Amino acid sequence: MTQPSPSPTSPFRQALARMQPYLPGEQPQGGKFVKLNTNENAYPPPQAVIDAITAAAHSGLQRYPEPTALAFRRRAAEVLALPGPDWVLAGNGSDEILTILVRGFVGEGQRLRLPYPSYILYRTLADIQGAAWEQIPFESGWKLPAAFSEGDESLKLAFLPNPNSPSGTVVPPDEVLRIAESLPCPLVVDEAYADFADTNCLSLLQQSDKIIITRTLSKAYSLAGLRFGFALAQPQLIAELGKIKDSYNCDALSIAAATAAIGATEWQAENRRQILATRERLAARLAELGFDVTPSQANFVWCQHPRFSHKQLHEFLKRNQVLVRYMDFPGWGDGLRISVGTEAQIDACLTVLQRALAEAGG
Ligand SMILES: *Cc1c(COP(=O)(O)O)cnc(C)c1O
Q1: Total-model pTM
Q2: pLDDT of residue 3
């Protein structure tokens, strides 16, 4: 895409006037789509969360909430076996946490790093800040090259979605620690999907003050509509980041819901078990249909067909009320990212996909 040239009379900062907006996946508001395009959880949240919201709605919405979401931070520290709530920063979705991190570490004219292909939002956050971003391409097999861990003083922050999107692949924790220790700046490990993975980097926090983990309740806790995410790091980092957030960035209803959700460990384990079972069935069926399927540790599957146009498959699916994500990464390639829905949703998707391939001559 060509950059629109900023109007010389624009009252906005040049960096803003020059940048492209971030485009989130489609969110059709009618009920008729099988929606497998933005990695939401296919199942509703636990009843305890609904009850907590109802109770909170009846107990003092006229007052401001506790400004740091302390109830949530206490519960999260317990559940995640961290020393205390001062290791946790709560935010209005992990996207807000990512914004706070960029504002905190990367000044105008400085630089952040991300792997490629990965989560495009990090670039947008750099653009807003008037900062530069650089992408380090994954090597084959979704391994990070040595260049990802090297850099000079102008590099102020590095992002690693782990599991990565769109691939669903994981960089193992011992390697994450090695990368963090050799970088000249903090490393944000974006664990939006870690609840679906075999490993995570929680145990590294006490070993390294260069690692910041971000998490969200949007995916593994079925609360994308609520907007709640958090950062985990050593207390001195959390305290500095706390200066940046809005005074009341989390509302009373979301704090109550998030506190109930993070404590619903049995619900979460059962939900995870179901999604992983469906994921393996989806991956196996896609392989049978001739797709190259990247083994996933997230709640989505990245697949590429050696013979058919991904764009056309995406359009065929959409015409038939199945929404998956078509992603094109210039210089790298394109493919389909399919969220792991319910068993019935995945059946519907596979049925339409099979028809699409048959009509395209497969
Ligand atoms: C979904 C997602 C997020 C954002 O989560 P929210 O809490 O809904 O803002 C962050 N990082 C990655 C890689 C994601 O896929």
Answers
A1: 0.96
A2: 53
